[in-house]
TrEMBL record:
E.C. designation(s): 2.7.8.15
Localization per Swiss-Prot or TrEMBL: Endoplasmic reticulum membrane
Membrane topology, as annotated: Multi-pass membrane protein
Protein name: UDP-N-acetylglucosamine--dolichyl-phosphate N-acetylglucosaminephosphotransferase
GO MF annotation, one: UDP-N-acetylglucosamine-dolichyl-phosphate N-acetylglucosaminephosphotransferase activity
Keywords, sorted A to Z: Endoplasmic reticulum, Glycosyltransferase, Magnesium, Membrane, Metal-binding, Transferase, Transmembrane, Transmembrane helix
GO annotation, biological process: dolichol-linked oligosaccharide biosynthetic process
Domain of life where this protein originates: Eukaryota
Gene source species: Adineta steineri
Length: 419
């Protein structure tokens, strides 16, 4: 309690305020540039064979939709962040000032990790990499960040919640495990957004909701003791939101462009970076509650206990122009015990719907809806128009990702931690 009373009301000085205003100004310009660039460049992407069919449209095979447009947002974002370096560190540039080398390295490492991930995401869009490779890419991209964390902080201790302290102690030093945890955060954030995808506007929409939540969280926390770390996060979130809004406008139903894996990886890595450097990775993960549920639900298919088709996105019923859950069919005898248990568990909890039938060769077959929360929503309230489905998924993100997190972080947490 004492710690809260001792906190300075605000440690943001005039220079920080100027930097925020500057950040907002160039972000608006950057956003407008992205808005202009997308229509100018999308034909070039199509010519370079970077396009896909919008699978949930009646005329899906007639129109080529430009893919990987997230790379435009990421490119402009990186340019804005390079400009911001000069401004953020400008006050330390006079000869008598002490230049904060550790902060500078942190900033550069964060950008390097994001840059690597954008490159790898674009490579994925061009080469269509295998899932095992996709899972590993963020691990390498997060290395610069982990090294800087090692050099600057070195702290690998976690404070345990109050109820377990009498048994397990006040805090634990996780050592190397803490670094494993941080790299897992990077792997999770990047892939979790990419597997909650397939409906127009969803990938970029969820990224913007998460970014806005982080921004609000940073603004609240700026009043506290660790304001420098939250300022750092703010400098990243403002341009991120500005550069991705134009992508959302054009990716919203009916999609004029696709964002590609580039945007999913770019967004995921940006969130991981600010969460790790800003020391709020646990709160940041709470903003991913819908993605965590979708990942847990996807485990049976991702790890091949149940067959995973190339696309798990919903299936269009062209007669009524509405989406139904997509289905995967396989022989019951191919299902191992663990696969069967998972199928039963998610069926009892109503996340999926399955049925058994006999095929022409008299074999027992299983037909199940794919294991994603997109299909779950359709199982519960479908069939739905694609735009309605996108809106419901955005609402889920806002309620279960953002509002619930703020409730946990500012109310429930007082039962588990001192401040
Ligand atoms: C992930 C999902 C896959 C889902 C796909 C949709 C897993 C394991 N993988 O794969 O199930 O089908 O994303 O993005 O969960 N598309 C649309 N409408 C959209 C978005 C995408 O039709 O609103 C189609 C387009 O044909 C587009 C393609 O999906 O070209 C992009 O798929 P891609 O991002 O390469 O799929 P993955 O990320 O590998
Ligand atoms: Mg994808």
């Amino acid at each position: 309690m004492k710690q809260i009373e001792d906190r300075p009301i605000s440690v943001i000085d005039h220079f920080d305020r100027f930097t925020i205003v500057f950040d907002i100004s160039i972000s608006i310009i950057g956003g407008l540039i992205v808005h202009q660039l997308i229509p100018m460049l999308k034909e070039k992407f199509i010519k370079a064979q970077l396009w896909g069919y919008d699978l949930n449209k009646r005329n899906s095979r007639e129109v080529k939709v430009a893919e990987s447009q997230g790379v435009i947002a990421a490119g402009i974002f990186l340019v804005l962040m390079f400009i911001m370096i000069a401004v953020v560190f400008a006050e330390h540039l006079h000869p008598e000032g002490v230049f904060p080398n550790h902060k500078f390295v942190e900033y550069l490492a964060a950008l390097l990790s994001i840059c690597c991930m954008v490159l790898l995401g674009f490579a994925d869009d061009v080469l269509d990499l295998r899932w095992s490779v996709k899972l590993l890419l963020p691990l390498f991209a997060s290395l610069p960040l982990l090294l800087v964390y090692f050099a600057n902080y070195h702290s690998t201790t976690i404070i345990l919640p109050k109820p377990v302290r009498p048994y397990l102690g006040q805090q634990w030093n996780l050592g190397i495990l803490y670094y494993v945890y941080m790299s897992m955060v990077a792997v999770f954030c990047t892939n979790a957004i990419n597997i909650l995808a397939g409906v127009n506007g969803l990938e970029v929409g969820q990224s913007i909701v998460i970014a806005c939540s982080i921004l609000v969280f940073n603004l609240i926390e700026l009043q506290g003791a660790n304001s420098e770390e939250h300022l750092f996060s703010l400098y990243f979130m403002i341009p991120f939101i500005a550069c991705t809004i134009p992508v959302l406008i054009r990716n919203w139903c009916p999609a004029e462009i696709f964002v590609g894996d580039t945007l999913c990886y770019f967004a995921g890595m940006t969130f991981a970076v600010v969460g790790i450097i800003g020391h709020f990775s646990k709160t940041m993960l709470l903003f991913f509650i819908p993605q965590i549920i979708n990942f847990l639900l996807s485990v049976p298919q991702l790890f091949k206990f149940i067959p995973c088709p190339r696309h798990r996105l919903p299936r269009l019923d062209p007669d009524v122009n509405k989406l139904n859950p997509s289905i995967v069919e396989f022989k019951k005898k191919d299902l191992k015990l663990l696969g069967w248990l998972m199928l039963r568990f998610f069926s009892i909890t109503k996340f999926i719907r399955y049925r058994e039938f006999t095929n022409n060769d008299n074999e027992i077959m299983i037909s199940t809806t794919n294991f994603t929360i997109i299909n779950t929503v359709l199982c519960w309230c479908g069939p739905l128009h694609e735009e309605t489905l996108s809106r419901i998924l955005m609402l889920i993100q806002i309620v279960f990702g953002s509002l619930l997190t703020f409730f946990i972080r500012y109310y429930l947490v007082t039962f588990f931690y001192d401040s």
